[in-house]
Design brief:
Elements (H helix, E strand, L loop, with lengths): L2 E4 L12 H9 L2 E4 L2 H10 L6 E3 L5 H13 L4 E4 L12 H9 L3 E4 L6 H8 L6 E5 L7 H8 L5 E5 L5 H12 L4 E6 L7 E6 H10 L6 E5 L5 H6 L7
Parallel strand pairs: 1-4, 1-5, 2-3, 2-4, 6-7
Antiparallel strand pairs: 7-10, 8-9, 8-10
Helix pairs in contact: 3-4, 7-8
Length: 237
């Protein structure tokens, strides 16, 4: 019986690739990549010659059965996404579940993921938080906002750059203009930046400076009048 490895890849800075990740990708029998062209550049950089197969959201339902059979016959297979940790808003969940159901060992390596540095860098409470990923495009979006408006934990969302201004406007509408927001852009890359402020302040910033690149948005949870007086978002040290 082989094993499935879930291997995180850098979200921008190639120096974030771990020694272990490089070793595993060199040793496995096959690498499943979200986009073989994108991953090909990464493998070339680290001199990894392992064969790749395409595994993405459009074909994963069709390929899982064959992958399971290959692992059961003794092959070790690694799954990578274009950037970050597989299965976090990327393909990976279905294959992992299938391996678990078939008593196949799954080894997820620690490594790069965008939301953790964005959360810690926000300065918002991070003892309790929820990861929302991408919100629904149309159907269910308003319903989700109405539920999140009452959420007291810090919220993490992924937002595409061309939808950021619209999303921040929705924050003002559903969460209120004073809700604290932190937007981290291009994490680990040359032009990395984090903009913090109220929902209204951050909205006005990006209305005048259209955003580019990968974006993670952190939203403070709803706080009570008592918590406001106690300074929930003040420095807790």
């Amino acid at each position: 019986m082989g094993k499935l490895y879930l291997v995180p890849t850098p979200i921008g800075n190639l120096e974030d690739m771990t020694f272990r990740a490089i070793r595993v990708l060199k040793e496995v029998d096959l690498i499943l990549a979200e986009d073989t062209r994108t991953s090909g550049k990464l493998l070339k950089h680290f001199e990894i010659s392992t064969h790749m197969h395409s595994h993405h959201m459009h074909n994963e339902h069709k390929t899982i059965e064959n992958i399971i059979k290959r692992i059961q016959t003794g092959e070790n297979i690694a799954l990578i996404s274009d950037a970050g940790t597989p299965a976090i808003s990327d393909p990976g969940f279905l294959l992992t579940r299938a391996c678990v159901e078939n008593n196949i060992e799954v080894d997820c390596l620690p490594g790069a993921t965008a939301f953790v540095p964005a959360l810690v860098n926000s300065g918002f409470p991070n003892d309790k938080f929820i990861f929302e990923g991408f919100l629904p495009e149309k159907k269910g979006r308003q319903t989700r906002y109405l539920a999140l408006a009452e959420e007291t934990r810090t919220m993490i969302l992924y937002v595409s750059p061309h939808k950021l201004v619209k999303t921040l406007g929705e924050f003002v509408q559903y969460f209120g203009a004073e809700r604290p927001v932190s937007v981290s852009r291009e994490i680990s890359k040359l032009h990395e930046e984090t903009i913090r402020g109220t929902a209204d302040e951050v909205l006005k910033h990006f209305e005048t400076k259209p955003p580019k690149g990968e974006i993670v948005v952190i939203v403070g949870g709803k706080i009570s009048v008592k918590e406001k007086k106690e300074g929930k978002y003040d420095n807790e040290d």
